[in-house]
Amino acid sequence: SVLLGLCVGILTTLASGYVLSTRSQPGREILSGIKRNQFSVVWQPVVESSGLRVTGVEALLRWQHPQAGAIPPDAFIGYAEAQDLIAPLTQHLFKLIAADAATLKSVLPPGAKMGVNIAPGHMHSPTFKDDVTRFVASLPPGYFQLVFEITERDMLQEKEAVSLFSWIHEQGIEIAIDDFGTGHSALIYLERFTLDFLKIDRGFINAIGTETVTSPVLDAVLTLASKLNMTTVAEGVETPEQAKWLRARGVNYLQGFLFSRPLPLRDFVLWQRNRIPP
Ligand code: C2E
Ligand code: CA
Ligand code: CA
Ligand code: CA
């Protein structure tokens, strides 16, 4: 099938010698991966662009496959969605996050934002609202500000988005439009929905400092965000030069390797404790 082909293509690039044969069943592998605890969550800090104070984190999923090694989320999320496994996988992610929450609480300020990527396949699934309700109840009460990150591309496919988004807001959860600038122009959605954050795709951030003239699209995105009064987050910030430029342009939050890679809980705690804010 197309899916197997896709999966094989991805796994072969891992150069681990492991290839899913057409006889193997990746769907079953995801389920057994959940059972065998092969999935984990890593945390990447989000910092205030002004003071560079850590104001939040984003949860990112990892799959340590026994044969294939580390499989990146871009390679298995879409696959899990197509196999109707995104709900069980996200339920599992919610549990992993809840298990880390008490420790995270000890190193993050009250109201710290906790970004969680939500796949549209899960939003559509019949268990979504129950999953979210249970997830919220599993976190330290009133401490974290949850932010659901939904990609611009996925928003366009979301027909019931208006009512779902208001339901999400009613649960006290904020919404970020992820990878902004890479979709097929969701501009109309910016007016229709109340979205809290706009995450500027790292493709635009990459270009800062490498080109004499910055992207007119990035300029337009920043102007638009300020006119709509939306809070902005730049992702993929790798150099001080980029951070400086974004700060000067009024971007509210920064995220990227310049500050930290996504880290397992223990490493994140050490990073946060040993950090000397600039
Ligand atoms: P995303 O939501 O845009 O996440 C940001 C990605 O950029 C992460 O890749 C992160 O490691 C990477 N990144 C952060 N800072 C930098 C930087 O300075 N430079 C570069 N080059 N990269 C940076 P990751 O963890 O491989 O995740 C890829 C995508 O997979 C995510 O993109 C997200 O769309 C999806 N994903 C990850 N975890 C989950 C999850 O739990 N659920 C769902 N539905 N999707 C997830
Ligand atoms: Ca994200
Ligand atoms: Ca993103
Ligand atoms: Ca992305």
Strand order of the largest sheet: 1-2-4-5-6-7-8-9
Major beta-sheet overview: 8 strands, mixed, barrel
Helix content: 40-55%
CA distance, first residue to last residue? 51 Å
H-E string: HHEEEHHEHHEHHEHEHHEHEH
In DSSP terms (H or I, runs of 4 or more residues), the helix count works out at 13
Descriptive keywords:
single chain; 278 residues; alpha/beta; 8-stranded mixed β-barrel; 13 helices; binds ligand C2E
Molecular structure report:
The protein has about 280 residues and is an alpha/beta fold. The chain contains 13 helices and 9 strands. The chain has helices at about 1-10, 25-35, 75-80, 85-105, 120-125, 130-140, 150-155, 160-170, 185-190, 200-205, 215-225, 240-250, 265-275; strands at about 40-50, 55-65, 70, 115, 145-150, 175-180, 195-200, 230-235, 255. It has an 8-stranded mixed beta barrel with strand order 1-2-4-5-6-7-8-9, surrounded by 4 helices. Helix 4 (about 85-105) packs parallel to helix 6. One calcium ion binds next to strand 6.
